[in-house]
Structure formats: C-alpha cells, structure tokens
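Support request, please re-run this one:
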Amino acid sequence: MIARLRIPGARRRWLAVGAIAVVALTGCSVNGGAGQQQGSTLRVVAAAEPPSMNPVQSSSSDARVWGPIFDSLVKNDPATGQVTKDGLLTGWQQQGKDWTFTVRQGVSFTNGEKFDATAAAFAIDQCRTDPAAIVGAWCGNIANAKTQGADLVVETKLVYNDLPKLLTMIYAIPPQQYASAGKAFSRAPVGTGPYKVLSYTPGSSLKLERNDSWWGGKPLLAGIDFSWAADPSTRASYVATGQADVALDLTPEAAATLKSKSGSGTTIESSPIDSFMILVMMTDKPPFDNVVLRQAVAHAIDKQAIVKALFPNGGADRLDSLFKDLLNDPKSYNPEPPAYDPAEAKRLVAQLGGTPEITLSYTTNRAPKDAQLGEAVAGMLEKAGIQVRTNPLDYAKYREQQVAKGMEIYIGPLLNIYRSVDVPSLGMLSPKGVTQNCSNPEYLEAREKGLAATSPAEQDRVFSDLDHRVFTDDVCDVPLIRYDGTYGLSTRVKGWQVPLNLVPDYTQVSVG
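Re-run finished. Output below.
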C-alpha cells in the first residue's frame, strides 16, 4: 500500500512515499542470473548512462562508471577526500605561482602510448582550452603546463595552494589518440587505468576487463559490467534477484526493501557524502535580477519539511552552507541563511506587484528523489504567490540547458569534486563556473584572497564572509539538501567503501 504525504505549503503537489516492492525483471541488460557463477566480474547497476565517456567533457560524478578506465593525475583517497602521492604524480613542490611535479615512470596507456610529463601537460591543456571541459572553470587559474626534463611544471596566474587537489579531477588521456579520435573518443575511451573497455553498447551496457599491465598492480576483479536502471527499486531488485552485485544511489526505502526481501544475502552501505541539491537563480537576467524575488524564494522553502517528507528514514539532511564543511575549522562558522518564513515570502512577493511567473527546471532520476524535490519546491513557491511552471529534465537535457544558460531557476545536483572551498566558490561564482549565475568581481577577489591565504584562520574568515554574502545577503542560490551515499551490495562483494565524491575505488573491491 502506498502512503501519500503532503509537504506543508506544497499546494496541489502530492508525494508518494512508503513501501517499494521488489519487482520481477524482464529485458535486463546485465549478465547472469540468480544461480549463475559470476567469477570475479563485478556487475554494477547505475541510475543512468553517462552522457559522455570522455573524462574531459563528462560530469565528474560519472567517473563512478568510466573512472576505472582512467587514472587521475593526482590520486584522491575516496574515504577522506585527501590527496596522496601514490598516483601518476608522486610528489610536488610549490614556489609561489610555480609548481613542479614528479611524474611516475614506466606507465603506458592501454593503446601503447607512453604516459609522461608531456601527456600530463596535454591533459591539463584540455581542461584549460576545451570549452566543454567539465572542470574548465577550475583550470582558469592555470597559466601554463610544460615539461622540465622528466618533470611536469605548472604555472598559475595567482598563488593557488590547492592545485594538487584540482589535479585529482584531471585524468590522463593519450595525446595522439585523443587528438585523432575527436568526438569518437567517447565511444572508445582509452586510459592508463586498472581496467579497459571490452565492449560498449550505448543505451545498454559498458563492459570492462582487467588491465593486466596496470602500473598499480593486478586489480582484484577480472572485470566490471555496468548497466542502467532509472528507478531505485529496480536497481535494488537487480541485487535481490542475483542479477547484479552492486546497486548505486539507492533511496532509503529501496535499500530497506532490498534488505528485508533478501535478508542475509545483501548488505547496505550508507554514509554522508559531498553530494548536494541546490536551487540556482540566474541573477543576470529577469526576473531573478531582482534580489527581492530571490529573497522571497528563499523564505518560501521549508527545507526541514522537505527532508522529513521525502527522507523519513534518513538518506539526506538539510543543507544551509556549501562552504562550512570545507573550512579548516568548521565549528568556527555558523551560517545564517534566510529562514523559512512563509509570511515574509508573501510580503516580498506583494512588494514586487503583480504575480511573478517563473519556470522551475529540475533533474529527474539523476539523484535520489530529485523529481519529488522539484515538485515540493514548486508547491512552496506557489503558496508564496509565485506562479510556477515545472520543467522536469533528464540529465543530458539539463546539462545542455545549463551550459546554454537556458534556465531561469533550477534545482540540480552539485558535487564537491575535491574537498576545497575552491569548488563551490569557483563553481558558482565565476562566469565560467558550473552554475554561471552569480558572477561578481568582488566574489572572485575574495576567493583569490582566501585561496592564497597562508593562515588557515584567515582563509576561514574570508570564505565565511563570502558564504554569508552569497547565500544570506545576495541570495544567489539556496542550498537545499545533502545526500548520504547509499549502496545495495551482495554479500559476495568485499572491500566496498562509500566514497565522499561518488567515485568508488574499484581496485579495492573483490567478488566471491
């Protein structure tokens, strides 16, 4: 039986929550069945196929699928988000604006090309020069990348203390093949990573096999098979019926049902991660160039009611700041975002005169309950006196419109791709950032001052002030919720860790 709950203020927008049945599957695209021997191939079912398998142009969170094919230049510990020196770049030194990196020797791409300082510089240059580079905004402070003997030298435009963290999100790609393949590289990606492509059928599956020549040693798994299923209960049922070993991005309800139906044959791994949903308002054009309307929107949203209704069994929490958790001393800062105040929201709308009409866009099946979140926020805005047209989008269309600045107000996922205040500050506050909505030279000056600070206390002060101005005074964005990473696993899966940035370390995983 489905229980129907209504979020306070969400007029005409009803949300179904409650028991989720494990369904029988037909037309499953993953291999195997309940009684089949899987050997040492891990079968993973994700919510959606990445729009691109090119690490330069693909969303960083999609590295959970294509990540095993590649190595990032600097290795990132998925459990802590901290950089390590046991990746392709094994050491570094900073002298003001210049960095010198030691490059691991003896590494080759799976097509035979050599990885060296030239290849590392090439990958950085793609981030700097490709207009479609997903982390291109963060590479804007890089002035040059070049070789110096066997070393890599990177020059920055300003003092930038977090460069090694940024390089955890730049992946080594073979210069010759990448240049010659063009767009086709996404169909046949090649890297230095622990796995290589065995077959790729767009719309169906991606199958990887072990790279026995991987510089990091022999991976435990013989292969990884990925398939896609939008509904979390369907993903859970793949594991329950033995058709998959791992289900990514489960809702708490789907996870609970999986556990109850399959008992000791499955486990659930869940913990808070650096994955968020935020409400973005495009401040450079009407109607959200008016701060009064932005303030009304912020006061109209009851985050606590949303979390309580959509996630009664856990799996998410309210989010008030994108900076606090990344400060050196998070306890030193208490954000004060606009409080939920429906009366004040109505007063501000009335102050505008007339009835504001907006189109609210949001993702569907990209993050747990993202469509329901969009409906809930739309209902709250309606109650404040704003006329709302909803525009639900699959992720590929959402990214297309986001890049083209085709949405006036939208809800979408944001990921701390590496643990640094640089991520939200540049991703949201730069003309070349992901959201492209709140560009202000004063914000960027503050960011540069904070990143160059030699004192942790000074950096915290700068970014605390910036957080307050962006979210409280100017209300460019409204942080909504922070997710837990929730995974359904067969008990045959060993070594799984919940990654902070959504990208598992498959080299530590085994099956059976």
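The chain has 14 helices and 23 strands. The radius of gyration is 23 Å.
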